[in-house]
Amino acid sequence: MQAKEVFYSRILNGGGLVHHERLEVSEEHIRYERRSRINHHSYSVSIPLRSIIAMEIYPRMYGVNVIIKTKERTITCRGLSRKRATKIKALIENRA
C-alpha cells in the first residue's frame, strides 16, 4: 500500500472562496484537484514524480503558491501555508 499525504488550500492562506484545491503526494504520483464549491465541477490531473522538472514556492501576502513544472504542463496550487509548501517540496525531492 502506498503512503500518501494530502494538502488542502485554505482561504486564510489566500485560497479561493469558490474553488477548493487539493494536492496529493504519493510514492509515484502527484495528483492535483480543483473543485468548485458552487456547481461541484472538478478538474484533476495526475503526474508521475519522475517527470517533474522543477518546483517553485512563491510567497504571497497570505500564504504561498506552489508551482510544479513538467515538460507538458505546469500545475499551480494556491493558498497553502509556507510550512506545508516546504513539506511538499521535501516529499518531492525525497521521492523523485
Name a few traits of the molecule.
about 100 residues; mainly beta; PH-domain like; 4-stranded antiparallel β-sheet; 3-stranded antiparallel β-sheet
Structural commentary:
It is a single chain. This protein is mainly β. The protein has one domain (5-95): PH-domain like (Roll). It is built from one helix and seven strands. It has a four-stranded antiparallel sheet with strand order 1-2-3-4, covered by helices on one side. Strands 5-6-7 form a three-stranded antiparallel sheet. A hairpin with a 5-residue loop joins β3 (29-36) and β4. The model has no long low-confidence stretch (mean pLDDT 86).
Structural category:
mainly beta
Sheet with the most strands, sense and barrel status: 4 strands, antiparallel
For the biggest β-sheet, the strand order reads 1-2-3-4
Spatial separation of the terminal alpha carbons = 18 Å
Radius of gyration equals 13 Å
Percent strand equals over 45%
Shape: globular
Number of strands: 7
In short:
The chain has 96 residues and is mainly β. 15% of the residues lie in helices and 50% in strands.
List the SSEs and their pairings:
Layout: E1 5-8, E2 19-25, E3 29-36, E4 42-48, E5 52-59, E6 64-70, E7 74-80, H1 82-95
Antiparallel strand pairs: 1-2, 2-3, 3-4, 5-6, 6-7
